[in-house]
Batch of 4 targets.
Target 1
Amino acid sequence: MSTSHPRIESAAAVESSCAPGIPWLLGLLALVVRLPFLTQYPLAWDSVQFVLGVEHYSVALHQPHPPGYFLYVHLARLLHLGGLSPYGALVAISVVSAAAMTVLLAYWAGKLAGNSAALATGILCIVSPLAWWMATVGLSYGPSGFLSALMGYLCWRLYRRPEESVWWSGITLGIIGGVRPSDCAFLLPLWLFCIWHKGWRPVLSGLLVLAVTTGAWMMASTLTVQASPEVPSDGLAVYASKYLWDRLPLSGHWNRLLHNLKYLGTGLAAMLMGGWICVFFARGNELTRRPEFLLLWTLPAVAFFSLMLMDQLGYAMVLFPPVVLLAGLGLARLQIILRPVLGTAFWLLLMGNLAFYTAQTIILPQREGEANIETVRAACEPYRTPETVLLTNGEWRTKEEPLRMLPYRLAMYLFPEVRVYRFPLEPTLEVTGGPNAGYQKQSAMVKPP
């Protein structure tokens, strides 16, 4: 029994291309609507590390944390030299990356299924809670989503067009390694699959381009590290042993598997919420008729996040492009199946629900959190001397003290002259913390003297 719908087939015949203005208008909308809601403070531990890296790059000092994110941090440094604040430069990269991802995915969806698919995909990129969150904070997950979309599109062209050059995709994959090295590993199997059928000459050419691109930024990174006399020779090895291998399910800690699956599931849910139902209607187009392409685009990351490491919801941004692309295609198909009135009602209900959830869980908490930070910062300002000791907790806020806590790492950043110690709320735990060493020490937490 055929699963195709006659009205879908006729619509596909009519909507064989996308109006060129739609993706660009959606990208502009994605940029404009987020500008009033960009964060002003580094609202995450890693954000502080990136900010410190923009000011003084040293992986050994966790400025930023390993593996260093060389190209990402140094792009922010260029923007900082152009006049933006260190954190403002990071946020600018995130919001522009989100807009570029919206343009690219809307264009791709339009090429696959016409204007309605382009519009649905672009709006989903804008109202997605996870995408909105990562577009407004200074973290590397925003560019991760755009680069995954760009690499997916370039690989799609390679897969469908034998004459397509492998150079641009090889360069892009090398750049991804300098922004988020793990994403390079996740996308490598898809790229190799798409160039393998071209013959040995294009394969060697592509591998050479990838090696040259990666080697260029790695050499620059090595020179930067050598210029820092405080770098320990075994710093990365110790980090890999303590923070990665010793906690992995594959090293015997199988309780981490449930932890990883919880974070992965939450990250995937935060992409589309109820919009996931649209993914299952994404049929009848060229992309879904190539399941091997979609599997190679997604399975490496899913396997790693499940079996190895998944500590941040933002990790899932590398999976966002294939998921939202399928959801946009499925939503366009649902509109045809449900006919104009019901289809439009479903479309508005879904988008409104996502927008409401984004406002309630992302926008309002961010603004409230920044207002709290400003309150505490202003109250502590008269006491920022080397003799002052600031006790804080590692969490953003607590029910007991909703307005009097600063995150430990953010407190170190805001008050570099003050000694900052972190302490737990539970009285049974020992008081732990670390002296605030400003920009020149690691952020390790030790017992206070």
Note: The CA atoms of residues 411 and 420 lie 7 Å apart.
Target 2
Amino acid sequence: MTDLNLRLDNVPSLDGKVVLLTAHVSIGGASGIGLAAARIFASKGAEVHVLDIVPIDESFDIYEIPGQTVKPPESLPEVPRGRINFRQCDITDWKSLRDNFLSFDHIDIAVANAGVSQDPDYFTDVFDDDGLLLEPKHKVMDVNFRSVLNFTKLALRQFATQPAGSSLVITASATAYAPEQSLPVYSATKLAVVGLIRGLRPMAEQYGTTINGVAPAATISKLLPTNLAAPIKAAGAPISSAYHVGLAIAYSATAQQQRAVESYGRDDATKSNSPGRWNGRIILTLGDRWTELEEPIASLRPNWFGEYNTKMTAFQQKLTDQRPL
């Protein structure tokens, strides 16, 4: 795996840039990872618009980790008033999301960060008055994947109408790679997000953009408040601050790479080995570490997928690759 050492200085000036970010949780306004990312973007000069149902919770401590008393290694400068803006939006509603996109002439960075946890009783049987099994509620899928698909669709449509150079970042989860048995549906939605990033990786250039992700492990937020995180930290397990994950999001939207994650279809070796914008990559945030996962996984494909299977599926992709190269 590829370990990274990120600092705020790794994120370039974003003066004049417009950032659109979703931050929906079922238990309160934009906070945690979304708030941290918004503040980082704004500290670099961007105009940030946060889409959520309820206003931003400015009181949330984005640096907090249970039991940590030392000052964070770096802190953000004061962000001028008006640099971060709240826009009311139900991200699960197509019209609400579409209308927000339509209100912008251009968007430079789009971040699909919204997420909710699953109902722990998802697989508990509930019956109607006739004794028939009721269909479970699908809010976790509506927020974590369907709304992400809609956000991605709208972002790509917007990016295709403006000069190249935009970025799309999606918040996945460490559970996409290491599923939680207590959160099987949540884990499945986040694995679907990883699949979306991988599937769009070869196509992003057609829209003048890049697509990347961040996969947080246990992180202080309203989904994992300090009181629940304290026993994890006390046992010696790693926990990330919201700032740690927010920095990975900002980096993913602006970074450069030395080569592509992997070639696809009719890509030639020159293109795959050329430097360019960070694309199709996912950063795992675990404790105080950042690790890029996708290039190492792709490079080991013959080991876990089989050499013959790797060769033949790549051949199939080449035959069906209809991108205008």
Note: The first strand starts at residue 2 and ends at 4.
Target 3
Amino acid sequence: MPINERDNNSKTPLHFAAENNNLEIVENLIASGANIYAKDKYGCSALHIAVINNAKETVEFLISKGMNVNSKSEDGKTPLHYASEFNRVEIARYLISCGAHINAKDKYGYTCLHLAAKSNSSDVARLLISNRSYINVRDCNGLTPLQLADQYKSTKTAEVIDPSRVKSSDGCEIFCGLLFKFIISLLENKQ
């Protein structure tokens, strides 16, 4: 099989090696001339695939060989988008240290924080926020990460984004936003 031959999904042997976190094969393929920039039919490089499959050593190696930490798939997702979506906190930390754009948007307007909120990746959400992720940015449907967290019942991530939702010591939940809306509606009804 030629080193850059593709299957019916346009995956190369390098994609498969990255998917299986087989660093030795990844190293040998690249040393033998494999195209590290090859993308599958979804626009995913071996780096995207390694992130999805939690292959941290492979991620580190591919970046050391020149892979762009901000390369985008067909739907505009960067490796950090995938780390956020699949709750790969250590990989996300590494990608951020390599210059990953935290607030990059995919074709749906999702930032990494949107995807963390949607998939209840609370640890990644905490990491993103601590690295200045925008919390009030809206996707193509006008939703913020907090609204997506609510929509997908991602309670832990909602609490990371909005600390006022954390249960108090007596067990009561505090929803300042709802309380504020209630007070406003009372005042409007008085007039």
Note: The chain has two domains: 1-67, 80-89+101-191.
Target 4
Amino acid sequence: MPLIRNGKTGPGAPKPKGTRAKSGCYTCRIRRKKCDEARDHNGHCNTCVRLKIQCLGFGDKRPKWLTKNKCDEILTNIKRFLAGGSVLSPETSYLILRDEGLEATTSPSDSFESSYDTGFALFEDLGLDNLAEPVELEGNFRSWSRGNVLLPQSPSLSYNAPLISYDFEPEDYFTPTALSLLSFMDVESTLIDAQLDRRYTDMVVGMQYQFSDEGTRTEILHSIQSPGRHQASTRLLAFIHERRHASPLSIALEDESAQARYSELMAALNDPRSYDDDQAMASLTMISTLLFDGGRGDWQMWLNLVVKHAHILLGQTPRLALMRCNRKQAFLIKACIWFDVLASVTTQTEPSFLHVTRELFSPNISGISDVNNPDSDMMTVMGCESRIVWALAEVSALAAWKQQEMDKGRLSIMKLVQRAEPIFQCLDEPLNANDHPASRNLCSEVFRVAARVYLLSVVNGDFPDAEDMEKAVQEAVPLMASADNAVVRSTVFAFFVCGCLTNDNVSREVLYEQLRREGSIGNCAAVLELLEQVCMDPRGKQEPVPWRRALRKGNLLLV
């Protein structure tokens, strides 16, 4: 039987050179990285918890078992773990560096008993850290927690069949070499993936597309049943959601393992030779990942990928193509149009799908925007009437045209007003669709009144004290004040634009408070921060509000 290492060094090994540094946990010392020395309720340093690596504890002298060879082995495992985290295949979700149960006096047979019954038994019998008490998270999602590793409580995630195939003698099980042969971490990763899938299904998809109808969500969930990039991206999104919930003040994508997963998906999805519907859905989810983690990042890159694919699907006849494509493709196209239109507010360029929104959603053209055709209506995708999507796209296009004319020194105010008139007519008309849930109707109305404020800022300039601007904001604020969480999170565009273009402190505080209420999951906190910066910027009344410059510089996507 292979021998257990007892910590004794062999001939020729260097003699101990006294105690190691007396600060930091042993894991961080082995990594030669600074340890924050702040400990959680289990006594683990926050650095290790954040990296999802086992904390080996604190002390003045190195433990006898922690030989030089063991340190080298641990360092190699840590480097491999941090560099190779993958969401595209089963992979370690938490790195165990030392199983203290191996050095206990437990008999081998004790460790095998009942390990065939459930997923929990395996973890308990291996002598890992004691599991914490059950923690209630959100919705119907309950989990057990050990450090930052979520282990399932739900019977649906338990297993009645053996989790590991034992092809070796029981005594081999208790050697470090044999332990590395176990697919222990693969088992844990499978459980983690199941948890992430359930978290996405139970909570995250409803937050990602808050006003999509049941049929759309069913199609999305069906799409991630098979392994692929879309499934991998939703697991990353669920992971980001969990981390933001656990650590509201931290950026989840700064986690090294999350960065590795994000980078791998970026490499996989950037291959134009294999880009398909699954990858386009994954790219949309990557935009959501950035939104859930604060709203900043390279969302433009992901959007560009989806835009190219959507243009291919639409071809030369967008209306006909959208009616002929399957439900998944229809959702993908409409979601892409929505992201593109709101992104144009930040980029201050003409939307990529301007010709498409004109053909599909113009109120002057009878087409798929017909309220009697709900399967093709943007209300069932993003909670916004199709004609309002058209209006938002036209305002962004008008703003881009105005800037071009000003740059050339030939802006005609009369022509500007003429171009704006059809948009005003559209936005003056209240809600058309009354057969939707009240929250979805309110969401669309918030977009309508905010789009009017946006349009006035193009025609009049960014001057809050203009009479018609004051009136438009006063009409919008009561609607936003009555908005529930789902409406607030979906209409951050409205909160930012209206908040920037009012000098009324009472109205502005109402908008501030609604955004504060939403906490840190999503981009509400980032929108609030940027809004406060714009409003605190000293300027004279004769000066326009520099909200466009601040938004472009902040690269914040108002979705």
Note: The CA atoms of residues 280 and 308 lie 9 Å apart.
